[in-house]
Inverse folding.
């Protein structure tokens, strides 16, 4: 049987070393992303978005890692409600963390029904943060597609109704795909909440107020990754 030449053995060793370095670098990068939070000297106010998917929240631990506020998943579409909203609302208040409520908007459902769902779940409390509306679902995904004009009109109706309930202007949590499809940031004048891990987002074409800077932050408050949010100073 032919023996491997010294040069070939060297190449294999170098390949093995390079593979180990790549694996180590990937593991280090993954750890960095999982544990990364924006610099507090740049973004002094930081918090989280939480819901039933996060399980039971240790609110004291959440406060200990620097959360000054939390947006709570409250409702979605015309009928869905987050089972953990009431518990999280009370526990956050006990921990002295400011709270706001978030609705996941569904362009397939009428604005009035979605607004009714939200106001049924979310109390009228002037101490709460402005309501947030997540815009991610597209009208193209509806059983019966809806027009761009209808989406903007219905969304405006929804915003007016929940703002009348809360007494505060809503914040639009705008995902890249929704903005790319509808360019809603230039159509509706509300503060923006954008999403992009690690790097500041610029896809809305105008300044943002809130930023989900890490969608999977390793933490002591939940068993899984936490959606970490910062406020533009």
């Amino acid at each position: 049987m032919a023996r491997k030449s010294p040069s070939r053995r060297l190449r294999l060793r170098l390949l093995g070393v390079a593979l180990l370095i790549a694996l180590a670098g990937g593991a280090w990068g993954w750890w960095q992303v999982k544990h990364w939070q924006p610099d507090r000297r740049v973004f002094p106010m930081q918090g989280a978005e939480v819901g039933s998917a996060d399980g039971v929240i240790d609110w004291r631990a959440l406060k200990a890692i620097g959360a000054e506020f939390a947006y709570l998943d409250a409702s979605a579409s015309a009928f869905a409600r987050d089972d953990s909203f009431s518990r999280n609302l009370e526990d956050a208040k006990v921990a002295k963390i400011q709270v706001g409520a978030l609705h996941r908007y569904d362009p397939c459902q009428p604005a009035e029904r979605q607004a009714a769902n939200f106001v049924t779940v979310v109390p009228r409390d002037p101490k709460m943060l402005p309501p947030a509306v997540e815009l991610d679902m597209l009208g193209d995904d509806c059983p019966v597609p809806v027009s761009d004009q209808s989406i903007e009109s219905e969304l405006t109706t929804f915003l007016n109704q929940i703002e009348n309930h809360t007494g505060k202007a809503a914040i639009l949590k705008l995902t890249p795909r929704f903005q790319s499809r509808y360019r809603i940031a230039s159509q509706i004048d509300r503060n923006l909440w954008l999403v992009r891990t690690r790097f500041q987002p610029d896809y809305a074409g105008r300044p943002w107020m809130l930023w989900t800077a890490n969608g999977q932050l390793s933490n002591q408050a939940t068993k899984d990754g936490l959606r970490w949010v910062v406020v533009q100073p």
In short: The radius of gyration is 22 Å. The domain at 39-231 is CATH 3.20.20.80 (TIM Barrel). Residues 66 and 192 are 22 Å apart (CA to CA). Confidence is low (pLDDT under 50) at residues 22-32.
